[in-house]
Description:
The chain is of the alpha+beta class. The protein folds into 5 domains: 6-120, no CATH class; 123-275 and 299-351, no CATH class; 353-540, no CATH class; 544-598; 606-707. The chain is 43% helix and 12% strand. The chain contains 23 helices and 20 strands. The protein has a 4-stranded mixed β-sheet. Strand 2 and strand 3 form a beta hairpin. The radius of gyration is 29 Å and the shape is globular. The model is unreliable at 434-446 (pLDDT under 50).
Amino acid sequence: MASPNPALGGVHVPLAASFLLSSKKGKEAWIEPIIAEDGKSYTFQVHRLPIPAEQLNSIKTGTKTARGGFICLLSGVPMPFKYVRSEAKAGRIQSRLMAVVAEGKKGRIYLSPTSEIEAIAEISEPPDVPETNLPEKALGFRIQEYGMLKYKNLFTNRQLVALTTFSDLVLEAGEQAYQDSIKAELKEDDKRLRDGGNGAKAYADAIATYLAFAVDKLADYNSSICSWHSGRDTIRNTFGRQAIPMIWDYAEANLFSESTGNFTSCFDWIWKAIEKAPSNLNGRVFHRDISNQINSESRNSSSVVSTDPPYFDNVGYSDLSDFFYVWLRRTLKSIYPNEFSTLTAPKDSELVANPYRHGSKGKAEKFFMEGMTQAMRHIQIQQPSEYPVTIYYAFKQSEDTEKGISSTGWETFLEAVIQAGLSVNGTLPLRTELSNRMRGHSSNALATSVVLVCRKQSSTAQLTTRGDFIKALKRELPKALKTLQRSNIAPVDLAQASIGPGMAIFTRYSKVMEADGSPMTVRTALQLINKALDEYLAEQEGEYDPDTRFAITWFQQFGMEPDDYGIAETLATARNVSVQGVQDSGILEAKAGNVRLLRRTELPPDWNPLKDNRLCAWEATQHLIHRYQTTGGETAPAQLLNQLNHVDISIGQIARDLAYRLYAICDRKKWTEEALAYNDLVTAWPDIVARANEIHQQEPLQTTLDL
């Protein structure tokens, strides 16, 4: 984009969110912008060297600023988002090659760009590309603010050439499949697959359909919304999360390579799914709006309902689906004319709380509440009483108020469930998300769906009071939470998973009455459940050693930052330790009248718990995380866990439990990166334990008696 500095005369400068190519230890690669002597032009040079410490931050952040917007590479003049959006909408945004990643025999090869390489990509837009407009406003969309108004704008011209070519070849391949099936003496008739055919023509339609799915997968990995994952040295697909955001430095795949984004790998996803599918069973699919209609056939059936309903305002399903729909329609509209009769997917009755569609946030919430209640009521009617309804829900509670944490999405959804006459019997946490998805690496996003097990509420359910409900929570919820922890549910998912057993208590009563005689709301119940969860995690501190309890209290107040020695002394006295004693344990620094916790990177890398005469759980947890982070595998932390087990068989488990407590603190404080460290340790714990057991079994047996 042109620099706003008039002295540069409109020279375009990079809008780069990062200059980092690879952060793998020993394989570091990064881009250095080389500014010309006249200060009015620049080139990019790729380095395969460890990143100098003084340049690390600038390489990671590129030309993007912490306060939003960018900074001119040549002059240092700020480029706020207001300016960036204005220039982009005026069509004055361009692309420039920063680096080339090639396939090598023993890993990636990173090359500096050349004018010859860049010229290869300069081709014209092909004919017959999808001209469908992007929605003016929609959940999860930000790109319209940067001049991208049509779906074709999400792709480079080279990507459009590739996708239109593959799309055209689908029908050609279908025709070839038809001719081959005739030669193979498959039944020759003109009855199409959409009409229930099972002859040569239907077979050709099926082949074309599966190939069209592969083209759609190809589009996911070949758009200008695909970013580069420097930690894994690979391309992230467009939908690393359920949104279409603006990506400043994007990666373009080679469709004919053997790396991520090539056509063969996209095709492999399709046939592998077919191979695993129970294709020998018959099934029927109906396209109906459950919130507005129910038929006698389903009401009288003995089927079991298991559903994954929309997540309030979290995902704009139909708008996002158009990314794929426009390519499917281009490819298959001659085979499925009815299914692709509209330019975009139908949206009017979609059950999401979309303020843009309904005019305001309040109207959107009302629409969702009424529609979800009606849908749940219909499910309750047609569900046989001997079977439970299972409802998948992966929606994070994120609204923190003076009364506690809750969520409008959860509140509205659960209110609909209860009003429909269903009660929650329990929770089944189910890992449903890929660990390598973009959100999993960049935020404390959920990895687990909470499966609510519901039944029709008993006609004999009784009233209860707020006080009795709280007593029941304190009596019953800890046991359920301990079970969840033992099953190694990730800390990021614990709050959501606790909703099930908590709401099971709430919905066993016909109503929970407040002191003023009004019925307790679902929002209040959620806040009380989350409060009980916090109390449970805090009570676990009683199992920790005094040094760890001091560290938790200090961390909760000051994080890893220094503060006054006098405050530390007061806290230490309350924990029945001394500041000097905690310092002797190796987790604290007291210096110049200030005290601070040592960061993981400051702890001794060769620490051996067998030689530590003041071992504490805090120290063990931080060392386990550090070894996991620095090696990227389970072996190093497993070796440490094995040593910890030799000291005290319970210390490792206590260290893992501590990670839950520290995650909860970080999540409340919005310390996302630190929270992820504790979440990752718990997630990897089963593999770490298994590897530690293997190491222990390989140890030589002791044949002499220690005296």
